[in-house]
Structures are given as structure tokens and as C-alpha cells.
Amino acid sequence: MAIKLRVLVVEDDAVACKCFVSCALEMGTIEIVGCTNDSDKGLELVRECLPDAVILDLELNEGKGSGIEFLNGLNNLGLGYKPFVLVTTNNLSSTIYDYVRKSGAGFIMSKQKKDYSEKAALEFLITISDSIVCNSDNSDERQSFVQEVEENSEKALKSRIYRELDLVGISPKFLGYDYLADAIYLVMNDEKEKMLQIIGEKYKKTDASVERAMQTAINKAWRSNDIDELLEYYTARISSDKGVPTLMEFIYYYAKKLKM
């Protein structure tokens, strides 16, 4: 099976960015995880997307910062790994080349060469993809970092979900409180069909009891809190004649709201 290489593009030419994306789609063995013309944003995307490789335009004349600033920032990020960096540039200075290599660039590809193209840059990465992915995947530090990022992201999202539940008066004392938080989180992560089953197995409850507890928690909140205050935080249309959101209305509303 072909290796799927995760690549971030830091490039100020919008046409070139589109070409990278279309070529990657055509090749099928590369996933473009992001495109930006800003070196600072590029560093943020490295932390968020954890790419295997970065295609880095050195000048970024039409963007913000520069490739050199990106390389210096990458060295100071404190990551447990470093993506392979393919520098693309119109600059022909040997002094700049030497500095860029010492700053961590894996390879420099001149845009002045007749055979340069966005496709050629991607094909170069594919040629060495086995080594790039192997070095990346074998890094204990990177695996630890990936795990930490995933755990922290889940905790941060769960905290936001709990805050939304608190705002509409769904108390942690309610049996369905944690079930609802898990349900919203699962729907946000496209675990819709087996949502009740997953929650039931986690808490050792039947699907029916999980569903009942969640709807009961919603009903209690709507009965015991001021309706104007509730509708300040829950702005979706309520289809039920009882004036209370149905379970799936409630879950999907917050899944969509928190994804924005």
C-alpha cells in the first residue's frame, strides 16, 4: 500500500498553492494538510497538523514573514520531531543556501531550473517518502507529542461542551450530563450511528437507558429554568410541541455550534 505523505505548503503564490493541491489529488499518495503565505501561521499549522514534510517558499514576498523566519521558528517550537523541509526559491545566493541548510532544510529546489514545477516538488517528496515517514513514525518524542496534542484537544473540547451544558442549566448532578457531553463529542467526530452503543458500553448501561437519561436531563433543564435565559444560549428552532428540544436536535445543535 502506498504511503500517504502529509504535506504542509508555505507559499505566497496562490496559483502555485492551487497547483500543489490539484497535483496532490491527482497523485493520490500525498495529502496537503494546509496552505499559507504566512510564516507564523505556518508554524501554527505545524503544531496543529503535524505534517511529515513542509514545502517552504523562501521569500514569501506576497505574504508575511519569510522562509528563514519559519525555519528559525521551527527550531524553537520545541516539538518532539521536525518535519522534512523542502525549500523552493528563486534565490541563487550560496550564502543563503548555506544558512538555510544549517537551519534545518532537508533539500533546496531552485525555481529557476527549467524543469521546476509544483508537480516536480511533490514527486521529489514521493521519491524519498519512505525515509521521511519512517524517520517521522519512529520518533518516540513525536509519538508522545501526537498523543499529548490529541489528549489536550479532547480535554479542551470536552470543557467547552460542559460549559454549554452548564449555561442551559443541565447540571452535573443529572444522570444524563456526562452522556450528553460524550454524545456531542462523538457526533462532532462523526461517530453518529453507534453513538448510543459506545456510550452504553463506556458506562455499562443499555442503549435505551442512556437515551432516556439524556432526554430526561434536557427536560429537567427546560422545566426548571427561565425560558428566556435558555433561549439566549440555545437558539435553534424547537420542533417538539412540548417546547423542549428532542435529544437529537439538542445533540446536533451543539455539535454544529462547537465546530464553527
How would you describe what is shown here?
Helix content is 58%, strand content 11%. With 260 residues, it is of the alpha/beta class. The protein folds into two domains: 134 residues, Response regulator (Rossmann fold, 3-Layer(aba) Sandwich), CATH 3.40.50.2300; 108 residues, Winged helix-like DNA-binding domain superfamily/Winged helix DNA-binding domain (Arc Repressor Mutant, subunit A, Orthogonal Bundle), CATH 1.10.10.10. A five-stranded parallel beta sheet has the order 2-1-3-4-5, with helices on both faces. Strand 4, helix 4 and strand 5 form a beta-alpha-beta unit. Helix 2 packs across helix 3, helix 8 crosses helix 12 and helix 9 packs across helix 10. The longest helix is centred in the middle third of the chain and has 28 residues.
